Amino acid sequence: MSKSILIIYGSWMGSTQQIAEAMAESMRAEGATVAVQTGNEVKTVDGYDGVIIGSAVRMGMLNGKMQRPVRKFAKQLKQMPVAGFLGCSVLMDEEVEDPVATAKGYLTKFTDKIGLSLIEVQPFLGTILFENAKGVMKMSAKAMQEDPKFQGDDRDWDAIAAWAKEMLAKF
Hints:
By secondary structure, this protein is α/β, with parallel strands linked by helices. Helix content is 40%, strand content 20%. Strands 1, 2, 3, 4, 5 and 6 form a six-stranded mixed beta sheet that branches. β3 and β4 form a beta hairpin. The longest helix has 15 residues. The protein is globular, with a radius of gyration of 16 Å. The protein starts with a strand and ends with a helix. 38% of the residues are buried.
């Protein structure tokens, strides 16, 4: 019997959305039915065998388009397996003593506040899709665009696909 999975994500410029879509494709290749939704698109979490929540992290903050539906459906989510992922540049910050723990902490601080236990949290390097920057993000993106450490795409698509398959097996 095929598993049904919901991925709820929050993305500012599209990188985290692309990670969520890649996870969905990996799970679909294994026979799962996967819905990928953000913010107000999430109408229910009922009927899913598992849920993955994911967010971009900017200046230590999670995206509200992931947080809002997770808060709204927290009661139901507490009754099912939920895993989490992050698209996070802190992973390449040489000044951070334990970047993986720091990245995971961004998400677990939020889920702990609402009493939601995650079966696993996985941070991934994101990328900045400068062409998608809007509003205030456009100004900071312009400054980052000139910084060599923000050039290129360091996302590890194989690791993302493998983690998605691992989570599917756990659901």
